[in-house]
Write a structure and sequence with these properties.
Elements (H helix, E strand, L loop, with lengths): L5 H4 L2 H10 L11 H10 L9 H10 L4 H12 L20 H9 L6 H15 L5 H18 L4 H15 L9 H30 L7 E5 L4 H12 L4 E6 L6 H11 L4 E4 L4 H4 L5 E4 L3 E2 L5 E4 L2 H10 L4 E4 L40 E4 L6 E4 L2 E3 L4 H9 L1
Parallel strand pairs: 1-2, 1-4, 2-3, 4-7, 7-9
Antiparallel strand pairs: 5-6, 6-8, 9-10
Helix pairs in contact: 3-4, 5-10, 6-7, 7-8, 7-9, 7-10, 8-9, 9-10, 10-11
Keywords: Cytoplasm, Initiation factor, Protein biosynthesis
InterPro entries: eIF2B_alpha/beta/delta (IPR051501), elF-2B_alpha_N (IPR042528), IF-2B-related (IPR000649), IF_2B-like_C (IPR042529), NagB/RpiA_transferase-like (IPR037171)
GO molecular function, one term: guanyl-nucleotide exchange factor activity
């Protein structure tokens, strides 16, 4: 369900309780808001897992429905390319190293950094020689800390490791089983979490298709694998749209995205970053990815996202964010400087005098009031729902 975190999806006890307590779900009809509202008013909170406010909002806008997410997950499950990648070959003669395992997974071009970390942590459990649960948890914690210290500026890497630790060890059954059974259960949950994370991109792409209409113009910023998957799915569904793609300084990742879209025969125009306001009147919607989704419902993303959202908001253009749930981080930045800087070298093409200071930060923070919706593998969320989701993810 859209309101359930990934750590609940495969919890058998929760599924059994839901099967008894949850009535048969149905799609919310945007043509009958009055009857839906009447039901909501008669029963202020028919489902205690969702606040009455969000149920009312769904009744009005038909944005978030359990059936919709279930259909997307079912479609993804039937996709021929949906099988998770095979484990990379590792020299059996070498002692196990979580960093080496992580780097082996990272060699797969379509695998996100956080998913590579999740796969590496699953390998830690399989290769562990611990004889007690306490030893295994300590070993997992050390491996997780090693991965997080590999790149302290990566929000998705830190969040992915933290969520893995919460999901894998979050089962009371471990207290009542012998060690071998408990370890097998941990391995099973680790593999499932990795599978859920791997499928996230395709689920997001399926959920976003209702918002892309024929003849629309979409502005994208920089390179995002999940945004590319969204646009690729729309192209495969034979939707007619064009894309305005920013250059994406300082690393010019927008050039890479424009090349990928050209391969799909999607009409694309490349813009310099400073031409966003000039071109915004042509745009119907903005799609961006995220390095991290923070507790306020805002996002941390590549430099320039904030100013694009400001311009779009001033011109009443919706700003959509596509982000996997493993990027939900326990952070609450108050301003642009209230986060660890991610510095990148910038080439201006000409020598810069040593007395001239250069801003080398590669990402900025976009507050939630400038975002319209977030497309995640948990469902289609408003920014205000993110804090609820984070509570469930990290509780």
């Amino acid at each position: 369900m859209w309101y359930r975190s990934a750590s609940f999806i495969l919890d058998k006890q929760q599924e059994e309780r839901d099967a008894v307590a949850r009535p048969e779900s149905r799609l919310l009809s945007p043509t009958s808001p009055i009857s839906s509202m009447a039901e909501t008013l008669q029963n202020p909170n028919p489902n205690p897992k969702i606040s009455a406010y969000y149920q009312t909002r769904a009744a009005h806008h038909a944005v978030v429905t359990s059936d919709w997410l279930a259909q997307a997950q079912a479609a993804v499950g039937q996709h021929p390319d949906d099988l998770p990648p095979e484990s990379p070959s590792v020299d059996s003669g070498k002692p196990f190293s979580v960093i080496d395992e992580f780097n082996n997974w990272r060699k797969q071009p379509d695998l996100a950094e956080a998913v590579a970390a999740i796969r590496a942590l699953a390998s830690v459990i399989r290769s562990s020689e611990a004889t007690t649960m306490m030893e295994l948890e300590i070993e997992l914690k050390k491996a997780s800390d090693s991965l997080k210290s590999w790149d302290t500026t990566s929000i998705s890497l830190t969040a992915g490791c933290d969520l893995f630790m919460r999901y894998v060890t979050r089962t009371s059954a471990l207290e009542y089983e012998d060690f071998n059974s408990a370890k097998s259960r941990l391995i099973e949950r680790a593999e499932k979490f990795g599978e859920i994370s791997y499928k996230a991109r395709k689920i997001i792409a399926m959920l976003s298709q209702e918002f892309i209409f024929d003849g629309c113009t979409i502005l994208v910023h920089g390179f995002s694998r999940v945004v590319l998957e969204v646009l690729k799915t729309a192209a495969e569904n034979r939707k007619l749209f064009r894309v305005l793609c920013t250059e994406g300084r300082p690393d010019r990742t927008g050039l890479r995205l424009s090349n990928e879209l050209a391969k799909l025969d999607v009409p694309v125009k490349l813009l310099i970053d400073s031409a966003v306001a000039y071109s915004m009147d042509e745009v119907d919607m903005v799609f961006v990815g995220a390095d991290g989704v923070v507790e306020s419902g805002g996002i941390i993303n590549m430099m320039g996202t904030y100013q694009i959202a400001l311009v779009a908001h001033s011109m009443n253009k919706p700003v959509y964010v596509a982000a996997e749930s493993y990027k939900f981080a326990r952070l609450y930045p108050l301003d642009q400087k209230d986060m660890a800087p991610a510095l990148r070298p910038i080439d201006f093409g000409v020598p810069i005098p040593s007395k001239v200071e250069v801003e080398t930060s590669a990402r900025d923070y976009t507050p939630p009031q400038y975002l319209t919706l977030l497309f995640t593998d948990l469902g289609v969320l408003t920014p205000s729902v993110v804090s609820d989701e984070l509570i469930q993810l990290y509780l």
